[in-house]
Amino acid sequence: MYLLVFLVNTTYKVIFWLILIRAILSWVRPGVHDPNWRKILSFIYSVTEPILGPIRRLIPTGNIGIDFSPLIAMFLLSILRGFIINLLYSIGSNFMF
Q1: Average pLDDT score over the chain
Q2: Spatial distance between the Cα atoms of 56 and 61, rounded to a whole number of angstroms
Q3: CA distance 16 to 59
Q4: 19 near 52, Cβ under 8 Å?
């Protein structure tokens, strides 16, 4: 059970940081002509887009021009992480003794 909690926490942290890095990169706009940057950006976008895309479709930026999908995704992932960890602990406590 502790292994599953560790995996959930680790997965959450990796996705959280990738979303944060993607948000920061959207402000900086690194050079995409460099093949190394292109590989890194491609990886970050391929991991985060399945999470951010549906949120962006539900809550469009409109005339504001600010994309709140990373913030909303981090919030929802945090809630999901807490729910899964509580579920794992409750399942684990039922199998003890």
Answers
A1: 88
A2: 8
A3: 20
A4: yes
Q: Is 19 exposed, middle or buried (0-12, 13-18, 19+ CB in 10 A)?
A: buried
Tokens read off for 96: 């003890």
Q: Residue 70 class from Cβ within 10 Å (0-12 exposed, 13-18 middle, 19+ buried)? A: buried
pLDDT value of position 93: 72
Name the band, by pLDDT with cuts 50, 70 and 90, for residue 11. very high
Unique residue bearing structure tokens 């469009």: 60
CA torsion angle 51 48 2 83 (round to 10): -20
**Cα separation, 64 vs 86, whole angstroms:** 37
